[in-house]
Specification:
Layout: H1 3-10, H2 14-22, E1 29-30, E2 36-37, H3 42-54, H4 59-71, H5 76-115, H6 121-124
Antiparallel strand pairs: 1-2
Helix pairs in contact: 1-3, 3-4
Domain HTH merR-type: 1-68
GO molecular function: DNA binding; DNA-binding transcription factor activity
Pfam families: MerR_1
């Protein structure tokens, strides 16, 4: 399939696909006229790349993991790397949960103050 079709089917921009190729995350063949052609499995690969980016992984990390993930060749090193990335994400989630809990406490306190007619001058610009 051509680059435009892959972009449409995978839900990404053509520019993103070119970037993935520059980073070594995606490969294509070329027609005699120089147009990129992608295999059918490229759709799933682009979706995986998007998921890994969404998880906060950098291009360099993804390029190291992707060949093993795509081929299904699981090594102890791959498992260690994936586990470390999952642990990093878990830590970020804990931090976000703590931040949300603090905001909930502030919202509860502020709602009580608002009901009592007290307002913070800083928020209202007074």
């Amino acid at each position: 399939m051509r680059i435009g079709e892959l972009a449409r089917r995978a839900g990404v921009s053509v520019r993103a696909l070119r970037y993935y190729e520059e980073q070594g995350l995606l490969t294509s063949t070329r027609t005699a006229g120089g147009q990129r052609l992608y295999a059918e499995q490229a759709v799933r690969q682009v979706e995986l790349i998007q998921q890994l980016y969404a998880a906060g992984l950098a291009s360099r990390t993804i390029s190291g993991l992707l060949p093993c993930v795509v081929s299904g060749e699981v090594t102890p090193e791959l498992l260690d790397r994936l586990t470390a990335e999952r642990d990093r994400i878990d830590e970020q989630l804990r931090g976000l949960q703590q931040t949300r809990d603090r905001l909930d406490a502030i919202i509860t306190t502020s709602a009580g103050a608002h009901s009592a007619g007290r307002q913070c001058a800083g928020v209202n610009g007074r």
